[in-house]
């Protein structure tokens, strides 16, 4: 099975706050970002037969462009929505209580954000959608850094201490190639196809 993923473009976040479920729209750079990612996807030979997207606006904007390019309808799925940062949503990271920040620093993927999720929660919901897909299919997900990183962790063996969630560029395109293991779960490898605008370095702690 082949799965292509595209991370959303740079969101409009003028106050530079923490966002996961916050439904930001895209930045003015969206036309160039989306065009570059979709051109890279098609040039890589992608031929998906179904396209799934996060229901958040920053993904829907890109999914609309991908739909035009591929002729595929958008299928919105909550399983590939971004992490819920709970009480941290809308806050600057410098305003987060120090004890909470240290708790995250000490367990980057396992720390549960107050009234929110931990990154392992994304593993579970992303795997549930992934495992439902046909073995011989080719698919496209328009999603978020947390979801794409989850695929790299739970399905491709990336160790939890390699916290790539804060390192991905916007509109990054990735190709995953999967086969089912003895328990029926997809496992495989990934290749980065395209990089877009780089994020600011994530400061933890």
Coarse structural class: alpha/beta
Numbering strands along the chain, what is their spatial order in the largest sheet? Answer: 3-2-4-1-5-6
Number of contiguous helices: 5
Amount of helix: 25-40%
Broad shape: globular
| Fraction in beta strands | 15-25%
Total DSSP E strands: 6
Quick overview:
The chain is α/β, with parallel strands linked by helices and 205 residues long. The chain is built from 5 helices and 6 strands; from the N terminus they run E-H-E-H-E-H-H-E-H-E-E.
Can you describe what's shown?
The structure is a single chain. By secondary structure, the protein is of the alpha/beta class. Helix content is 29%, strand content 18%. It contains 5 helices and 6 strands, in the order βαβαβααβαββ. Strands 3-2-4-1-5-6 form a 6-stranded mixed beta sheet, sandwiched between helices.
């Amino acid at each position: 099975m082949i799965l292509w993923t595209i991370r959303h473009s740079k969101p409009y976040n003028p106050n530079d706050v923490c966002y996961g479920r916050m439904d930001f729209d895209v930045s003015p750079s969206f036309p160039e970002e989306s065009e570059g990612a979709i051109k890279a996807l098609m040039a890589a030979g992608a031929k998906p037969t179904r396209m799934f997207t996060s229901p958040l606006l920053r993904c829907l904007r890109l999914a609309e462009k991908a739909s035009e390019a591929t002729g595929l309808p958008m299928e919105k799925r909550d399983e590939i929505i971004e992490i819920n940062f709970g009480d941290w949503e809308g806050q600057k990271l410098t305003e987060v209580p120090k004890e909470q920040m240290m708790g995250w620093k000490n367990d980057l993927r396992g720390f549960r954000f107050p009234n929110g999720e931990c990154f392992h929660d994304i593993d579970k919901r992303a795997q549930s959608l992934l495992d439902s897909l046909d073995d011989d299919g080719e698919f496209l997900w328009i999603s978020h850094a947390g979801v794409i990183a989850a695929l790299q962790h739970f399905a491709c063996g990336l160790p939890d201490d390699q916290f790539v969630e804060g390192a991905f560029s916007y509109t990054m395109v990735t190709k995953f190639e999967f086969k089912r293991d003895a328990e029926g779960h997809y496992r495989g490898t990934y290749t980065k196809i395209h990089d877009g605008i780089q994020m600011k370095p994530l400061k933890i702690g």
